[in-house]
Amino acid sequence: MAEAKVAEPKFKFKAEVKQLLDILVHSLYTHKEIFLRELISNASDAMDKLRFESNKGTEIIDNDLPLEVNITFNKDKKIVYVSDSGIGMTKDELVKNIGTIAKSGTSDFLKVIAESKEDASNIIGRFGIGFYSVFMVAKEVVIKTKSYKKDEPAMKWTSDGLGSYTIAELDEPIKRGTTIEVHLKDDMDEFLEKYRLESIVKKHSSFIGFPIKVENEVINTISALWREPKSNIKPEQYTEFYKFLTYDQDEPLTTIHRSVDAPIQFTSLLFIPKRNMDMFGYNREDYGLDLYVRRVLIQHQNKDLLPEYLSFVKGVVDSEDLPLNISRETLQENVIFSKISSSVTSQVLSHLQTMAEKEEDKYKEFWREHGRIFKMGYMDYANQEKFSKLLRFNSSGSKDSAEVISLDQYVEKMKKDQKEIYYAVGSSREAVALDPHLEIFKKKGVEVLYLYDPMDEFVMEALRKYKDFDLKSVGQADIKKLNEMENTKDDVEEAVEELSKTDKKHFSSLMKKMKDILGDKVKEVKESDRLSDSPIVLVNPADGMSSTMQRIMNLSGRTVNVPQKIMEVNKNHKLIRNLLKVFKANDKDEYIKDVVEQLYESSILLEGFLNDPHKMVDRVNKLLEDSSDWYTSVRDLK
Ligand code: ADP
Questions:
Q1: Does residue 214 sit in the same domain as residue 328?
Q2: How buried is 601 (Cβ within 10 angstroms: 0-12 exposed, 13-18 middle, 19+ buried)?
Q3: Pocket test for ligand 1, best of 42, 104, 106 (most atoms within 8 A of CB)
Q4: Where does ligand 1 bind, in terms of residues with CB under 6 Å?
Q5: For residue 8, which of 168, 176, 295, 444 is within the disulfide window of CB 3.0 to 4.6 Å?
Q6: Segment 623-636, tens digit of pLDDT
Q7: Residue 107 falls within a domain, yes or no?
Q8: Is residue 483, in this structure, part of any structural domain at all?
Q9: How far is the CA of 174 from the centre of ligand 1 (A)?
Q10: Residues 245-255: pLDDT tens digits?
């Protein structure tokens, strides 16, 4: 029969799709087989959606078709067929769904490829890159599809993946669903072998909840692993399921499998990955647990079953009590759902606590990988106690910057009369150790937690207390109480001569002078009782914001001011003693002004507030010049 060839309308792919196709077509991938995983996953989604519509009572054509995936092939024509009886697509849906990249995962994939030096084939498996991956193996793809909606014509979509596609009405009658015809490239004969297709299905798609047939034989036999009794499941099965669910090639760090009977009945199978999968921080949408109701998938990646700070958890939750036809929009308001959600949250937190107690190294691994996101949990007031117990910090007592302790461990090591838990903020262990605020803590042997992540400070400010102890930054510490504590034995204080009575008066006048010099830049200048090695320190007034907070405010553009602080002066420091001599000789000596301004600016420089370095550099140069004069004269150099 001679077919009347009518030119089919041609459409161009969107730029992003074209870019992806270029990568897929022109690169050599070792993971080509994943195209089948992607097609099966789309087929399964389409059948999930159909079942969902059916549960809602929507009218559906060919309602008696069994929900299954059929994979067949034709060796002579070199075509692999992947068919499903899902919702199918209308003409508009074909254009919208297949011509543009809908899925965030795909654009993330492009970003990662563009930015990483890693070979694309190493990362491709970790992404669900969707339908287009078929062009790794196909020189042409034909989609034949018929929507579940009444009166929609069957459609045909054809493309060679090179930039455009055609769409036309199909001239043969087909049943509801979609068939993808994969016309293989010349060197792809491996996919024309039954055993090869079977092994790909087994490897990547074992847990799909619908039968998958290769040449009419069902390949996947286990589906809802979470429904099996725990005692029947081997560790390998958990790992296999985890890999299927996440595309991770590694095994999970830990597995949580629970069945709850009362007051509500549900099963959860959860995993914490070894690695933070949010590579480069792009995939912020790619999280959430799969929600099932009596084995029927209601929602993929539901974002409300767990709070966001636990979004590294992957897995499924299957409820017995939720209605099958519940709409995604009303889920959040459902009482059963919110009970499940708080129960799942508790399961994760308790599991982490057990891990922290029984598998310390594993917990450290968890903390290293997922700690940053976990810390956001300071907002979860209902679970604050459990959350606080799980926090970890580096501290002055740690042997290096990698060691971490819990707040409980800190409390155990507290001094006899210590009522507060202290922390200091800085960009690194080295930087924090230089903070003059810490001098008195060293002297008294009081441990201080070191906070390197700005988030840590939010956590401390939000918690305020741990058990009976206030959380205090070293700047807010009650110095009087600290001074009442005994010095550590190895603190051999260098004997500094006390100031005479008159010198004490001069020192007071010097401090007044210092305040005059600095003016409004400081709130007050006063004698310090916390310093041993530094001449001065800037401290926050009791009612003031912490330095990190101020820095964050500045960064966010809300203020551009250098915060007003209190300057504390160490009267026993050599520099201050010399300054006092100068002051006594001539209280108007310019040198005093230079030194005081320099001390102030050095401090705010360390705290990250110095706006204009020019003046400071000028002054330093002048002081250096002076000191070079003195140096050469003292050494009697000609
Ligand atoms: P993803 O499946 O991740 O959304 P894909 O690129 O694989 O991305 O597919 C794009 C869209 O095309 C899907 O979201 C879906 O709407 C539609 N689609 C793909 N395959 C099928 C299918 N077999 N049946 C119905 N719709 C499909």
A1: no
A2: buried
A3: 42
A4: 38, 42-43, 46, 84, 86-89, 97-98, 102-103, 128, 130-131, 178
A5: 168
A6: 999 889 988 998 88
A7: yes
A8: yes
A9: 19
A10: 888 889 999 99
